[in-house]
Amino acid sequence: MYGNVWKKVFLIVLKGYVKKGRLEAGCDEAGRGCLAGPVFAAAVILPPNYKNKWLDDSKKIKESLRKELREEIQEKAIAWAVASCSPEEIDKMNILNASIHAMHRSLDQLNPEAEFILVDGNRFKPYKEVPFETFVKGDGRFLSIAAASILAKTYRDEFMEKIHEEFPGFDWKINKGYPTSHHRAYLIENGPSPYHRKSFRLKELQQIQLPL
User: Fold this and answer.
1) Same domain as 171, residue 105
2) What is the pLDDT of residue 202?
3) Does residue 174 share a domain with residue 101?
4) Pick the residue with more confidence: 171 or 210?
5) Do 138 and 186 share a domain, yes or no?
């Protein structure tokens, strides 16, 4: 179905829902640990009987497979949405709050609305009156969270590849804004771009004056 992709040696079947019979939305984010670019988040409501043996935490899946999975998720999901918070918003509210805010923005777009929310991680803030539960490593436990991780990751990667053309020296096409050795070295030598998060101050970047 997905071409010549690697096969799982030990097949782990992700759960489809917490409680059957309600519209459960999985939420996840991408880009929280980056030095540059927005943080993206996605919310996905999958059909109750949806199955996909390849769906997993986006970080464990090859890029080519992530793209194929994205197409299927968008085609078969009952509802899905992707949203983001800009570097300026991250600097203003901090990365944790910005990640949660981006999740709320994605939930705002769902039609139909979620009746229950599954969140990857251990931190979340109430969204309207909708009950929720957090799950550590939830993107490796529930299909809807894994689907959200795929959408958030692929949409953010595309954004970083696009802005790479404006500032190719940072090599965002490869590192996607994460603090690789090349990214850090180029930042130290040349200073930040308009896409950098000014509130991130790694030890090796202390010499750079990053205006808030």
Assistant:
1) no
2) 60
3) no
4) 171
5) no
The pLDDT tens digits for 111-170 are 999 999 999 999 999 999 999 999 999 999 999 999 999 999 999 999 999 999 999 999
Asked whether residue 12 is domain-assigned, the answer is no
pLDDT reading at 109 higher than 80: yes
Whether residue 73 sits in one domain with residue 28 = yes
Distance CA 149, CA 16 (A): 15
Contacts of 68 (CB under 8 A, 6+ apart): 2, 3
Which phi and psi angles does 30 have, rounded to 5°?
-145, 140
Dist CA 39 CA 16 (whole Å): 26
Question: Are residues 115 and 178 part of one domain?
Answer: no
In this structure, the answer to whether residues 72 and 126 fall within a common structural domain is yes
CA distance 30 to 62: 16
What is the mean pLDDT of the segment spanning 83-92? 97
CA torsion 122→32→61→164, rounded to 10°?
Answer: 170
Are 82 and 149 part of one and the same domain?
A: yes
Structurally, the chain folds into a number of domains equal to 2
Q: Do residues 154 and 72 share a domain?
A: yes
